[in-house]
Structures are given as structure tokens and as C-alpha cells.
Design a protein that fits this description.
The chain has helices spanning about 1-30, 40-205, 210-215, 225-245. It is mainly alpha-helical. It has a domain at about 1-120. It is rod-shaped, with a radius of gyration of 78 Å.
Length: about 250
Amino acid sequence: MTASCQTCKTLLLALLVVWGVASMVIIAVWASQPEATPPAPCDQRLQEVTEKLEGAKVVWGKNKVALEEMVEKLRVNLTRQQDRVRTLETGLALSGRSLEACRHGQALLHGNMSSLQQQLEQQELLYRNLSARAGRQLEEMEALQQNVTEAAHITASCLSLNEAAESQSEAARSQTSACISSKTYLERRLSRCKEEELRSSEKTAESSSPSSSSSSSPSSSPSPSPPAVWVLSLSACWVLHLFSCSSFPAM
């Protein structure tokens, strides 16, 4: 940008110099022409050339001022362009640093993305492991639930069996009490029977005489007395009661 402005400035100055030199050459050529006309027309032409020269000088001065103003404008524009160029260079440098920072940040982001990808893969692996573990735990929970259900049924069955056993135990205790009561009653009856048999035997021994006993027939056998039969029947009943009581297990 600076080289192009300098070239424009040089071209304008060269054009101004060429234009001034050409004007002077033209004036010198006109002034050196031979007089082919009378003096009056020559003076008139000289006056016209002089007037033209003065006009050319005025135009040249105006052009010079215009060119100087143009050069000044170009210089101002050049300064502005240089300032703009410096600003652009500063911005370019800042952009270069920003680009470098962006590249560094991009590298960091790439590293972070790689790390996040690895973490994501680890999380997916952990999720699969946890899913498999949860499935196994669910199966174990179902098995435990089945075991709990079976245990509940077994417990209910055991409770029912326990209640039945308690009922049987209560029945056995009641039967045992009845047996004990029957045993006591039979023992009392047996004791009474023995006492009556003893008294009856004593009375029979006292009332019998030696003569009657000797004259009796040897082939005849004494018939058993009624108390003895009674004692035997009571003994049989007592044994049957004891057998029936011992058939119930003690709980």
C-alpha cells in the first residue's frame, strides 16, 4: 500500500514537470520564429502570446496549487493508509496470537474429548457390569423370594403341626389323667377286694371243723369264691387301662 502511494506521487510530480517544460518549450519556439509579417501584426501576436503565457502561468499556478493540494490529500490518505496498515498489522498479530491460542485450545479440547471418550467407554463398561450384576441380584432376589415363600408355607405347616401336636398332647394329658383316675379307682377297688377276701378266708377257716373236712370226698374240688373272681376281673380291667394309657406318647 505504501509503495503504490509513493508511485502515484512520483508520477504526478513527473507529469507536472513535463507539463511545465513543454509550456516553456512552446513559448520559446513561438518567441524564436522569424518575422514573416509586418511589425504591427507581430506586436499583436507577441501581445497575444504574452497574454497566453500569462494565462498559462496563471493556469500553471492553479494546476500547481491543485497538484499540491492533491499531493497533500494523497499524503494525508497515505498517512491514514499507513495508520490503517499498522492497525491491520496489529490486528493481524492479535489474530495470529488468537489463532495460536485457538489452536492450543483446540489441542486441549481434543485431549479432553479423548479423555471424555475413554471415560464414556469406562462408564458404558461399568453400566454393562452393573446391569449384569443387577440381573444376577434380581435372580437371587426371586430365588430368595421363592425360598421365603416356601419357608412361609413350611412355617405355616409347622404351626399347623404344632397346633395339632398340642391338641394331641392335650388329649394325651386328658387321657393320662383319666387313666390315672381309673388306676386309682381300680387300686382302691382291688384293695377293698383283697380285704374282703382276707376277711372271708378268715371267717371260712374259723367256721370249718376238722371232722367235716376229713369226711369230705377227695374227688370233689372246692369252687372258687365270688370275691376271688371279682378280684381277677378287676385286675384284668386295670391291666387293660394301663395298656390303653401307655399307647399315647408323652408330648
